[in-house]
């Protein structure tokens, strides 16, 4: 009876990843059920992927990692100098991405380090600063190693004010410098006098005003703010207009009531309103403290950090400790500012991919179709980018919703095993720094992480968790 139903009913032909066959059948009027499939990134890792997929301990570890990641509730609580926030000593500098030495540093990172040395009074000139870095007189360390994150070059020096973000659930803290604004700025490797003067104003005026406002009121729920910003057209990485506006709305009354000189308060207000990316430097440490809450879970293949130093792209997994897995950082493809060409673009740089790690940024582009005007592409690209990320993530974020996808939660919890199995890399949208030190930003676009990061991470994971995978 069953065979008769099959033979007499409408036939459907299933195809798996072979577009030529699918197209040929469709042109003949055949009802095709197409399944998106492609071989894994590495045939060598096929058996490892199968073992991981069948491992209940791995599934349990990933459930725990995802639960911690999505239950974090980061709040903005104050401002501290880096010397106190991350205990940064004189002559030490933090930078974005995995560890790197001066000789391998890109132009933007070198420019930002030179600027920070001048800011701290540790060098008489740019040439003097560069020479001292080259001689190894200063210490370099990733922001991530001190519980911090930094946009683009991500350079932090002891006197720089940092926002303090605290997780209301887990109690952890994370830190980030205050966004400098647009134009020629330190984070893009510029170090002219105007850049340093703006940083000194932030330290002298903006940071004390903000700290007074924050400590005089209730902590600001940054995830609630980010969730609302997604409903208003942000994706919380390269589009932060709504987030910045919501922040200013939250602190506005206290700003007005501040005991600081009216001229200082007005200058702070103008600075924030004139800088749509101000919220980015709050979203990044909010994401960092959430991701850090999911670290060090034995058996978990979930990614807890993605970062770039302008030379290498690196990732860290929950179940492999503080080990970095790196590959060459790619050059973003997108829209360049007038007067610049592809040869002017530096390989990808910055810690801001921590936003993708927690389900926003490139993973939430469906919420911000206007982002394509900044990074290139079409509105369909924005929707498709978010849809594809569900294939490589462990769940959906309960607070971050995508109106264009029927308010589905953003894809969250990047699983390195799923990345390799589906041969699908995380979507990253980013600013583009000029290759030469001092140039600044030259555009914005999209970039693919190197597949090697995820393959190497799984190899190390399998070796480290051999006993666990044999259970």
Protein model, in words:
The protein contains 18 helices and 17 strands. It has helices at residues 2-8, 19-27, 46-54, 56-71, 82-85, 107-119, 126-134, 193-215, 222-231, 241-256, 262-273, 280-292, 354-357, 372-375, 379-389, 416-422, 451-464, 466-469, and strands at 12-16, 31-35, 74-81, 92-95, 139-142, 161-167, 173-177, 220-221, 303-309, 312-317, 325-328, 333-336, 349-350, 393-402, 408-414, 428-433, 441-447. It is of the alpha+beta class and 471 residues long. The radius of gyration is 23 Å and the shape is globular. The mean pLDDT is 91. The two termini are 43 Å apart.
Write the layout of secondary structure elements.
Blueprint: H1 2-8, E1 12-16, H2 19-27, E2 31-35, H3 46-54, H4 56-71, E3 74-81, H5 82-85, E4 92-95, H6 107-119, H7 126-134, E5 139-142, E6 161-167, E7 173-177, H8 193-215, E8 220-221, H9 222-231, H10 241-256, H11 262-273, H12 280-292, E9 303-309, E10 312-317, E11 325-328, E12 333-336, E13 349-350, H13 354-357, H14 372-375, H15 379-389, E14 393-402, E15 408-414, H16 416-422, E16 428-433, E17 441-447, H17 451-464, H18 466-469
Parallel strand pairs: 1-2, 4-5
Antiparallel strand pairs: 3-6, 3-8, 6-7, 9-10, 9-13, 10-11, 12-17, 14-15, 16-17
Helix pairs in contact: 3-16, 6-7, 6-8, 9-10, 10-11, 16-17
């Amino acid at each position: 009876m069953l065979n008769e139903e099959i033979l007499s009913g409408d036939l459907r032909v299933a195809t798996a990843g072979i577009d030529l066959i699918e197209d040929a059948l469709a042109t003949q009027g055949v009802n095709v059920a197409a399944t998106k499939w492609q071989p894994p990134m590495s045939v060598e890792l096929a058996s490892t992927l199968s073992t991981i997929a069948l491992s209940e301990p791995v599934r349990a570890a990933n459930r725990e990692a995802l639960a911690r990641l999505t239950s974090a509730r980061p709040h903005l609580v104050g401002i501290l100098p880096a010397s106190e926030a991350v205990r940064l000593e004189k002559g030490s500098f933090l930078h974005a991405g995995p560890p790197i030495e001066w000789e391998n540093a890109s132009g933007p990172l070198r420019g930002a380090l030179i600027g920070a040395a001048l800011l701290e009074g540790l060098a008489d000139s740019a040439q003097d600063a560069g020479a001292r870095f080259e001689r190894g007189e200063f210490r370099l360390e990733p922001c991530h190693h001190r519980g911090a994150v930094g946009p683009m070059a991500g350079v932090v020096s002891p006197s720089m004010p940092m926002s303090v973000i605290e997780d209301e659930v887990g109690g952890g803290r994370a830190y980030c410098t205050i966004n400098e604004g647009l134009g020629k700025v330190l984070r893009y490797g510029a170090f002219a006098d105007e850049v340093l003067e703006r940083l000194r104003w932030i330290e002298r005026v903006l940071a004390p005003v903000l700290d007074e406002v924050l400590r005089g009121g209730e902590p600001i729920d940054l995830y609630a703010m980010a969730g609302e910003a997604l409903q208003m057209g942000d994706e919380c990485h390269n589009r932060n207009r709504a987030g910045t506006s919501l922040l200013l709305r939250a602190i506005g009354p206290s700003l007005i009531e501040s005991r600081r000189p009216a001229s200082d308060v007005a200058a702070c207000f103008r600075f924030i309103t004139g800088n749509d990316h101000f919220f980015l430097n709050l979203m990044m440490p909010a994401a960092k403290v959430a991701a850090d809450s999911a670290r060090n879970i034995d058996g978990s293949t979930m990614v807890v950090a993605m970062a770039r130093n302008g030379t290498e792209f690196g990732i860290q997994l929950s179940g492999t400790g503080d080990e970095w897995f790196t590959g060459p950082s790619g050059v973003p493809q997108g829209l360049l500012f007038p007067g610049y060409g592809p040869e002017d673009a530096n390989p990808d740089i910055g810690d801001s991919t921590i936003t993708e790690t927690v389900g926003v940024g490139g993973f939430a582009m469906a919420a911000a179709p206007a982002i394509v005007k900044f990074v290139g592409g079409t509105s369909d690209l924005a929707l498709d980018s978010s849809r594809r990320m569900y294939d490589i993530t462990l769940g959906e974020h309960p607070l971050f919703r995508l109106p264009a996808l029927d308010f589905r939660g953003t894809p969250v919890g990047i699983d390195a095993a799923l990345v390799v199995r589906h041969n699908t890399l995380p979507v990253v949208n980013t600013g583009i720094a000029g290759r030469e030190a001092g140039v600044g930003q030259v555009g914005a676009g999209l970039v693919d992480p190197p597949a090697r990061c995820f393959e190497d991470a799984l190899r190390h994971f399998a070796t480290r968790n051999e006993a666990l995978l044999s259970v």
